[in-house]
Each structure stands twice: as C-alpha cells, then as structure tokens.
Amino acid sequence: MTDERPSFTAPPRLPAVLCLHGFSGGPGELQPLTERLRRAGHPVETPLLPGHGGGPGQLAGVDERDWLAAAETALLDLVRRHPRRPVAVAGFSMGGLLALRLARLQARTVSHMVLMATALHLYPAEELLLSALAATVPERLARGIRIPKLRVDVNDAELRSLASRCPGFPLGGLLALRRLARSAMADLPAITAPALIVHGTEDRAVPWQQSLELWQRIGSSEARLLMLERSAHLLALDYDRERLLAAVEAFLTPPPAPAPTQPKIR
C-alpha cells in the first residue's frame, strides 16, 4: 500500500542522518538501516537516549523532556560537524515522535523525515488502562510501578537478537511517552518537511492506522505512506526490511548532477 501524493523534493546533496530509537529500545533496533545509510555515504548519528540501555529502574528516572533535549543536542551536533550538508531525521516509534518535535522546533534544520511505526497512540485497551492509572496513581508513585513487556514485536526470528531485552516499562515512562505523543500530534499541522511514513501491518504494539492518521494530518504536502505487509513493529529488523531500506535510501538520495553541456562548434 502506498499513497498517491506527488513525488518528493530530493535533498540538494547527501544528508547527514540522525537516527532515533524507540521507547525502552536502543540503536541496535535500527542497525540494518544505519549500516545501509553509512554504506551509501551518509554521516549517521545514533544516540542512546536518556534512561535507555539499562533496566526499567533507569528508565523510570527520565521523561519526555530528557529525550527531546538529548535528540535536539544530537541534531545540532550533527549540524555543527557537517555544516554543508542538509540533515534528515529518521525516527522509530518513540523516535518518530521526537523526529516530529524536532521538525517543528528546528524547522530550518530538519530537511527530511523518515517516520517508522510512529507511536501516536497505543491500542485502545492499553490507552484506557493508561488513562485510568494516570487518574488514580500519583506521579511520584508511577515511576516505581513496572508494567511487564510481553513480547519483542518482530516476526523475523533471525534478527530478533538485535532488539532490546528490557523486561518491562515503568508506568511513569509510559505516561511520559503519551505526553510526548500529544505534543507531537499538536505539532503536525505546522510541519512542512518532506516525510516518508512507514508502518508494518502486523504491528502488535502500535496500530498501523496511526501512520495513516499521521499521513492525513501532517502539514507537509510531500508525505508518502508505505505499508509493509509482512512486518511487525520493529521494521528495520523484520521480513520487509529490504523494502524499507531501499525506500529510505531513495528518499534521501539527491538528484544526479546535470551532465556538462558541450559548446557548439560552428
């Protein structure tokens, strides 16, 4: 499934790319993508976001402000190190939310966005549970409540080992993720950067309909929706990853330089 919007405006030259992982994950869940981009000549930055890389207790000590600040610092550092290149942001799940926020807050800096399985909402039952808990549990206690992680949502078992093995989520972290999603949703009409929006139709963590909603609501006139029929949540590790990698590479490839003209001989 793809949309029918006009083709993209290509970046003027090969961009540097900031790649942002998902909630409770890490850079490994984007490894096939980052390796492909580096081979194509892109400078790539893949920061480990605050609170990640350890257990739920570490994640409980941070919130959406820490994640956004770290992403913005990494973006500006990439700009400083590559001042002559445009800069694109590729975000997965929570990283997609951060990419949207950066595209709004740093509109002159973010040239293109790749938004993979962006976590605008959870499934309805999980949203209702979060709302009930948020209404009854004080924030200071929410940080200590752990919700088990039931699955690693990738169909391809061969690459599942690259995914994070965090055993659970702190409730406070999930509530911070929801606040981040609401801020990103409010940003959507004002975002104008070209966007490649990708989702797996077998996603059991974030409903694929959320990317359809994202495509419909984003302000950019250059937004393409790509659905991957054999993939679950962890798109870069799943069966359709070659389609994903090829689509991202094409999206971020500048147009070929025009052939030099030969002077007429009279």
General description of the model:
With 266 residues, the chain is α/β, with parallel strands linked by helices. The protein has a single domain (16-249), classed as 3-Layer(aba) Sandwich (Rossmann fold). 36% of the residues lie in helices and 14% in strands. It has helices spanning 31-39, 56-59, 64-81, 94-105, 124-136, 139-142, 171-187, 209-217, 241-251; strands at 16-20, 44-45, 87-92, 110-116, 146-148, 168-170, 195-200, 223-228. The strands form two sheets. The chain has a six-stranded parallel sheet with strand order 2-1-3-4-7-8, with helices on both faces. The chain has a two-stranded antiparallel ribbon with strand order 5-6. Helix 4 (94-105) links the parallel strand 3 and strand 4. Helix 4 (94-105) packs across helix 7.
Characteristics:
14% strand, Rossmann fold, 266 residues, 8 strands, single chain, alpha/beta
Helix content: 25-40%
Look at the structure and give the mean pLDDT.
87
**What does the overall shape look like?**
globular
Class by alpha and beta content: alpha/beta
CATH class: Alpha Beta
Helical element count? Answer: 9
What is this structure's SSE topology?
Blueprint: E1 16-20, H1 31-39, E2 44-45, H2 56-59, H3 64-81, E3 87-92, H4 94-105, E4 110-116, H5 124-136, H6 139-142, E5 146-148, E6 168-170, H7 171-187, E7 195-200, H8 209-217, E8 223-228, H9 241-251
Parallel strand pairs: 1-2, 1-3, 3-4, 4-7, 7-8
Antiparallel strand pairs: 5-6
Helix pairs in contact: 1-9, 3-4, 4-7
